[in-house]
From TrEMBL:
Residues 56-189 form the ATPase AAA-3 domain. The keyword Nucleotidyltransferase does not apply. One of its GO terms (molecular function) is ATP hydrolysis activity. Residues 263-330 form the ChlI/MoxR AAA lid domain. This is MoxR family ATPase. It holds the Pfam family AAA_lid_2. Keywords: ATP-binding, Nucleotide-binding. Belongs to the MoxR family.
Amino acid sequence: MTNSSTLDHRLETETVEKIDALGARMAKARAQIETVIFGQRDVVDQTLTTVLAGGHALLIGVPGLAKTRLVETLGTVLGLDDKRIQCTPDLMPADIIGAEILEESDDGKRHFRFVKGPVFAQILMADEINRASPRTQSALLQAMQERTVSVGGHTYDLPAPFLVLATQNPLEQEGTYPLPEAQLDRFLLQIDVGYPDHDAERRMLLATTGSDEAKVEPVLSGPELIEAQKLLRQIPVGESVVEAILGIVRSGRLETTEVDEVKRHVAWGPGPRASQALMLAVRARAVLDGRLSPSVEDVLELAPPVLRHRMALNFAARAEGVSLDDIIQRLLADYR
């Protein structure tokens, strides 16, 4: 008869093997994505971190940096159904979630039939999300948080997994509606997409203007990704990592900080959802790097994309030319 200690050891060994296998699969997924996305390793890693953690991502970058291509490639590599909506001021909630239409059957009876909108996808790309009206943004907010939509008194479950990857142009702000704090807080990470370096742009130029175009192959499927997200929550987190997460997040709040720069320059700081996001993100980053548990270095690496959309500067900071990244780096300084 197997005693409890032997059983616990066997279960632990099985979990370790599963984590190792998942790390290998995610490394393969990264390699597949990088055959068509050039010079954006940090962006790819942060996007995969978001997906593995089961969250949503906000990608900030000027046009032409392959954000749409990244989402399409991600859908193919992870074996997920992806759809795209172009957000505009006249986009209505029904254009995203769907609507009920009145139909007449052959016997003359009338009834309503729900026609699903593009939100019924496993990966939804909301392009230029800040161009959608507040009413439309609120409809998307419910879908992001509850993974359901309500129409005509009925609630419909969204596909699983369900991920929103939204984009935003940091330059053109005319005709936009800034996302409210409640919706920004629903994004696990804010991913800043920059320009590729010289060598990466050269490779991209040669690869995308020739007759042969690289193709990517599926590495995971929807059910496998769901299991991976469940496995992620079993990864142990050391006490030093937990304390680093709590210390950094709480030091960004006016009510609990001892950092002078925060007291002088921050209007409001990150809530508890930031701690939760950082805890999940560091676990996912450890898996992507082939490790069994996260480190404090993972916290330092992922704190900026977790915090930068969950904090705001006051007028004094803007007047003195202090940036949010300056404040975040000050919060991290005590843990370097």
